[in-house]
Design goal:
This protein is α+β, with helices and mostly antiparallel strands. The protein is built from ten helices and eight strands. This is PhoU domain protein.
Length: 333
């Protein structure tokens, strides 16, 4: 429900406005309370101050195990809780192992306390020191190197490289969780965005791009798994075409990310539009490779077709990042 208030002048020079009583009561605001103001464009955000520097959360894990328990811990982390208490009448040995593994897979999270019926984990990183820009930049480097290495692994049937690519996906997933955590914190409180030095819309753009990079890493991992299924060399002409396809896909993602990171709106538009146009050329090149696969035995043709699809989809994700960059450069309503 939207409420309006009339701005008044007191003391001849001070502007004042009342706040809704219902909101004040629900946030423990009373006479003498201190509130914080955060200017954001033509808006002014108001939030109550708090002495609590750490956000605490509790979760009953009695009926949780395995992947479900892992996802629960990750969800609490991404939601922004700094101290997470996992409780049960008795936490089993298997649950403890799962919680430790989940904790180790998340950046900055460590077990702080462990008893028979409770495990407390805490984020040891200072949120104000985290950089969403650095996290997304790191994701970009890892995801694109994974994609390039995946095609190299196919060319030489290098199973060690394929397994290394699969393992590197964990690094991208950790960074994705960090980006998601930072983004959600900016939605929850304007103070988080101020500490980051970024507007919330920009944080949303970073989170959107990070999602696409995480998907590119997933497709590189898929190619790594497919490589392990080959027991015969891939024809040289197919490999050459795959490498060209991969180079173009990487160039699209690079151009799109450059557009996202660029402050000059004219450069943003040029880079992003070039990336989007290149995506259409990717589709034509992918069809040409499919023609080459027709001469191979069905089993190999199917595996290679899946690889072509993964590289093409990676280019599509680059196009999505370019679209996000264009929206960033568009006039603000």
């Amino acid at each position: 429900m939207v409420e309006t208030r009339k701005v008044q002048v007191t003391g001849g020079s001070t502007f004042t406005v009342s706040i809704p009583k219902e909101w004040a009561n629900s946030n423990d605001i009373s006479a003498g309370s201190v509130v914080e103001f955060y200017p954001e464009g033509d808006s002014l955000l108001l939030a109550p101050t708090t002495d609590e520097e750490r956000t605490r959360g509790s979760l009953d894990v009695t009926d949780l195990a395995g992947e479900e328990l892992t996802r629960a811990v990750m969800t609490m982390y991404v939601s922004g809780f700094d101290i997470i208490s996992l409780t049960s009448s008795r936490i089993t040995t298997t649950q403890r192992r799962t919680i430790r593994e989940a904790t180790q897979s998340l950046v900055g999270l460590e077990v702080l306390e462990e008893t028979r019926d409770r495990i407390v984990v805490r984020d040891l990183l200072d949120s104000s020191e985290l950089s969403i820009h650095n996290a997304v930049t790191r994701m970009r480097l890892i995801a694109l190197s994974m994609l390039g290495d995946a095609i190299d692994a196919i060319a030489t049937l290098d199973t060690d490289m394929a397994r290394d690519i699969i393992q590197r996906d964990d690094d991208v997933d950790r960074l994705w969780m960090v980006v998601s955590r930072i983004f959600r914190s900016t939605l929850r409180t304007p103070k988080a965005a101020e500490e980051l030095g970024l507007e919330r819309e920009m944080c949303f753009d970073y989170q959107s791009a990070a999602r696409q990079l995480e998907r590119i890493a997933d497709h590189a991992t898929k190619i790594g798994h497919l490589t392990l299924k080959f027991n015969e060399q891939v024809p040289e002409d197919v490999i050459d075409s795959l490498m060209e396809l991969c180079d173009e896909a990487q160039s699209i993602v690079d151009a799109a990310m450059d557009a996202l990171f660029t402050a000059d709106n004219n450069k943003v538009t040029d880079l992003a539009n070039d990336a989007r146009e290149s995506v259409q050329q990717i589709d034509e090149r992918a069809r040409q490779i499919d023609e080459l696969l027709r001469g191979l035995d069905p089993a190999r043709a199917q595996l290679l077709g899946l690889i072509v699809d993964s590289v093409s989809r990676s280019a599509d994700y680059g196009g999505n990042i370019a679209e996000t960059a264009l929206q960033k450069a568009a006039p603000t309503p």
